[in-house]
Write a structure and sequence with these properties.
The structure holds 2 protein chains of 2 kinds.
Chain A lengths: L2 H9 L3 H23 L2 H18 L9 H23 L5 E3 L5 E3 L5 E3 L4 H6 L2 H13 L2 H11 L5 H8 L3 H19 L4
Antiparallel strand pairs in A: 1-2
Helix pairs in contact in A: 1-2, 2-3, 2-4, 3-4, 4-8, 6-9, 7-9, 8-9
Chain B lengths: L2 H12 L5 H13 L1 H18 L3 E3 L1 H20 L5 H4 L7 H22 L14 E12 L2 E10 L10 H13 L3 H10 L7 H13 L3 H11 L6 H13 L3 H11 L7 H13 L3 H13 L8
Antiparallel strand pairs in B: 2-3
Helix pairs in contact in B: 1-2, 1-3, 2-3, 7-8, 8-10, 9-10, 9-11, 10-12, 11-12, 12-14, 13-14
Amino acid sequence: MDEAALIRAAQRGDDDAFTILVRAHDQSVLRIALNLLRSPEDARDVYQEAFLRVHRSLQQFRFDCNFSTWLHRIVTNICLDHLRRRKVRREAPRVAISPSGQEFDQLDSVAEPRADSDPQRRVLSDELRGKIQTVLGELSPRERVVFEMRHFEGMRLRAIGEALGTSEEAAKNCLFRATQKMRVALGEFV
Amino acid sequence: MNCVECESSLVFYLYGELSAETEESIEQHLDVCGDCRASETRLATMHRAIEAERLEPSLELLSACRQDLAAKVELVTHRPKTGWRSWFQPLGMSRWTWRLAGCAALVAVGFLVAKVTPNLPGTSFGRGQTIVSTVNHVEALGDGHVRIVLQDSVARELSGRLDDQAVQSLLVSAARNTTDPAVRVDSMELLRAWAGQPGVRQTLVEALERDPDDGVRMKALETLRPYAAQPDVRTVLLHALRADRNATVRAQAVEVLTMGNLQNSEVAGALQELMQREENLDVRQQGQRVLRSMNASLETF
């Protein structure tokens, strides 16, 4: 069954079709949320909220854009809300305390590095990695979404613009600003 | 093109977001300008450092998310919004009170059924067994009787050594049949040392070719990596490179097919074919790098 047929079946209330539809896209949704929010709990919340919104609103989906574009719009909106809230209240660090009293990074237990980037991760200094994370945290929520969708999802600017409900030109300006900030901050490392 | 123009376009050059003509102008300028070439190298290094920061969610997290969602969708879809419960709303009982009442009612019904149901021939519901039943068939027999066909499954636990043939068979079965992708991935990991055996390898090849879950196909690909020179593995890797819907799987297939001395004209052809339709910029750039290193043209014409 192709995707359009799956969507129509899910719109008629076919739970199995909805499950297949979710499974075709959910790894990408979870990856976007985990990378943007760097918190497994928040990523899990975004996953639930995004697909429950899809479940509630699927009847209104009119095939005037790709399903993935529509889904990306939902996910990025939820992530943007999380990032904006976090900017206001300065989120707690993701380091947690284990039962034995030792500090550990929660992401270590829920994320696997991309297999082909593993050697690069090993050679990158902790300092550089820390700097990248700091700059990502300092970008505006919108700049961060655009920057990560390009770098981590490999999406083209047109698709990013569509996902954010904005023009390709606006996405391009956002990406340029984010890249320049990253270049300035990482100048001494690369 | 001068240095100022080059600098302002360099960012989008590396993102692959410029027209072919502008790209060509930049490349001509980079060939003759050491400063801009150095700037391009620094920017490319920064891209690689950033992309290495990408997190891939673990299958355990994915599995937990799927279970949460299934439970919530079930609640949304199957909880009646009207009907008998609405009669009692004025009594002021909360949703949780109703859930507790519902649980108590189920226990009571189970107790009553156990008391009043005669010992049916052919049933063997032993004490302490965990039984999950699915109703496969229902039929009226007349006189108020019905016939119900149940499919029972009994949960059992066993342990054994990994080199035990029976244990391996169960793991192969788990890698093929289970509905939970996390179990398929765990089974493949346990079978890694036996991936050279024909039965295990065939399971991995089939998983890479057609498993619906991206993470499982990725795991199968990784497990098959040491056997990339074998004809059946090579065929499925070429299939993944050409047709897998997940960009990370395609990128990994490119890497495995071009490692060591595996490169040949068949791989070059598949990559050239890929370049004609690949949408993902990372995979495109990776394919282009490999084709350049093989001194092959970037596309077929």
